[in-house]
Amino acid sequence: MDKSINKINGLSFVASNRKLVDKDTKSVVAINANWVALMPFGFMPSVNAPSLNFNNKWQWWGETAEGIKTTSTLFEKRKIKRMLKPQLWIKGGVFTGFISMSNEENWTLLEKNYETFILHYAKLAQEENIALFCIGTELNAFVTTRSDYWQALIKKIKTIYKGKLTYAANWDTYQKPTFWNALDFIGIDAYFPLSEKKAPSISELNKAWIPIRKEIRDFSNTYEKPILFTEFGYRSIDFTTREPWDSDFDETYNSQNQKNALISIFEMFWEEDWFQGGFLWKWFDNHRTAGGNQNKGYTVQNKDSQNIIKEKFKGK
Fold first, then answer.
1. Is the pTM of this model over 0.85?
2. Which residues of 125-161 are buried (b: 16+ CB within 10 A; e: fewer)?
């Protein structure tokens, strides 16, 4: 673990469609979080088109540079550290890991557009005293097929931004990037499949984590870099640990499943010295109306699981 940074007990703070004020950050403090991830978005029309638009007037306020600056300032006043995690959204919600150009000309255009996007937010992160910058999220094919580009991009980022760096790799591809040596943390979006059971127990989930944890620990030791779960979370449904990344499939509401899965991931990782912490997916600014009983989503807000997170984040 990076001894200069305490364990990261973070929340993925969802961009708001309205301008936030100080009271909108109180719920983050109340749950004992010490970090938030802020996520501006860029938009692509398809996985095969190189155009990339961002910081547009039609975007939600919290997804834009203005929204990020204001939100970051509000959290800084509360002594909450921030990770800036610019992300891409592809029309129709297509998985970003499938981004792949059909020819060299389009690859070059995409690389130019992505560099403009990511350096814009690297500059903002430096100006706003943001402690951690994520250079990309779940860009599987882009990262593996254009490795020289990414090495060069990281060098350019470092001329602008002087804080810590990570990349958010998908759970099944974190071993593929070739640039981990150039970053401070190995970032993993930790939606590992754990059980085919409808409602596995905590002990069953812990057992399922053992070989996965060993593989992650060994990878950390190979690069001598701490592991950061750039995202982790579970829905309040039956079979929530079967395919935790899937936000669309419909199942019966099950609050205990979310609780068990969260307890397990904390028991299996948060005491490990090679593990830096993580960012829970996800947390909304409108806390009073977010989540709640019968909500099948990832948020723990106003659910029994909220108390689990509050206790686990306390004093770590």
1. yes
2. bbebebebbbbbbbbbbbbeebeebbeebbeebeebb
In this predicted structure, what is the pLDDT of residue 315?
A: 67
Q: What is the CB neighbour count within 10 angstroms for residue 6?
A: 14
Helical spans, DSSP H, in the chain: 26-30, 65-77, 104-127, 140-145, 147-160, 202-223, 255-269, 304-313
Task: Give the angle 184-190-194 at the CA atoms, nearest 5°.
Answer: 145
Alpha-carbon span 212 to 277, nearest angstrom: 16
Q: Is the peptide bond before 282 cis (omega within 30 degrees of 0)?
A: yes
CA angle at 280 for the pair 276 and 283, rounded to the nearest 5°:
140
Angle among Cα 281, 284, 288 to the nearest 5 degrees reads 130
* Phi-psi category of residue 206: left, alpha or beta, with phi > 0 → left and psi -120 to 50 → alpha: alpha
| Residue 93: CA count within 13 A, CB half-sphere | 3
Q: Are 164 and 184 in contact (CB under 8 A)?
A: yes
Task: Look at residue 316 in the predicted model and tell me its pLDDT.
Answer: 54
- pLDDT for 169 equals 98
Tell me the average confidence (pLDDT) per consecutive run of 10 residues in the chain, 316 residues long.
Answer: 87 96 96 97 96 93 95 98 97 95 97 98 98 98 97 98 98 97 98 98 98 98 98 98 94 97 98 97 96 96 96 83
Query: Based on C-alpha coordinates, what's the Rg of the chain?
Result: 19
pLDDT of residue 145: 95
